Amino acid sequence: MAWRIDEEVIRGELDCRVRGRVTGRIWILGREEPLELMLEGHPGRDLAGHVLRFANPAPVEGKGRELMARQLGVVGDMTASRKVKVLECSAEEFEDYYRARKPFPWHWGNGMYLEWFSKCNGRVVIESAGYALELEASATWELTKAEEEAQRVANAKALTEFLEPEESEDEDDPRSEAEAEADEEAARMDLLMDRVTARMDREGCDGDSFERILEEERQRLKQERGEKELTPEQLAEREEWLAEFHAGEEEMMAEMEAEKWKGEEEGPALEHPLVERSRELSMRVYAEVEQKGWVSEETHQEHPLVEIVTRTMSASAKLAGALGDDEEWPPEALFAGSVLVRLKKARGYLRDVIGALDSADEEGLATPGWRLEVRREIGEILGEVQTLIEEVREVLAEEE
User: Fold this and answer.
1) pTM of the predicted model, to two decimals?
2) Which of 15, 56, 114, 186 could anchor a disulfide with 126, C-beta 3.0 to 4.6 Å?
3) Strands 106-118 and 70-87, sheet pairing
């Protein structure tokens, strides 16, 4: 899980005047001494050779005060010129727009994004479009294209290593009885749908036969396991799973085939930001792989680029199922198990994308720049998903 401390920062300075090294100090509300950055690597081209000073006009206290004072580690993505969508309303007004399903006012702004990986605290991110920024005009050196490419590779490697679970703890293991029950139900439904799909393929059945085969396989599985009759709550949950099975991936494919892009003048989609981001990424990856001719209709499904496309799409569909209809976060305990299963499914698909990207690197598929950009975005989405998973787990733990 990343430390996101942008709201807690009072002010800071970043010194990038020495090639291959970034130092700085950042003052956090609630702690006396500033964070001291001593990082290896290069910042973005706009910061290379400069000193950046920044100030937050309205800091609030948070967990940033718990960070270690000396931040030793490596540079991630660092820039003061990232284009971001900036709200033109308060958080309370945004909530009103969201609940009313009305477009909210926004504009493109210039945002600061500072990311690093420390030995003590892991990934730390400061991202804001509301800071006052001051960049010293003179530069002591300029970042070359070769150095920029090497830093992008290092950023991707650092992010991937950060996201890999430690051997001593399997983060897929359930942390509560409710999570274990949700995992068991998900595995049961996966097995049932695999059997239904295999039988329909084997018998050459059409869509009209789905409900009949589903009921037959459901009864067979129940007999094999000696299960009792389902409660109304369990029946309702399984109906929800079936609805997702029919609509989830099919909806994503339909959107991609039709390329239903919304113009910027219509405003951003009224959905969870992570759903919007993952959907835009999946559609872009799909379009780029197809338009550049990197795969064809004859390309097998195990091809790394095909897997990148399909797994990115599947992750987006699972995130939409987990976050699309929720107006409040975290979810209530009654729905937390179902949300958690979908988030963990999305996490699995995102990990599959990283594995496929590793294979694409080995085989030299697509282009290095494209692979690195997809890896960076997938890594950031994966980090956000892991944060959501931990928040839902806290809900289930409190309920127990």
Assistant:
1) 0.61
2) 114
3) antiparallel
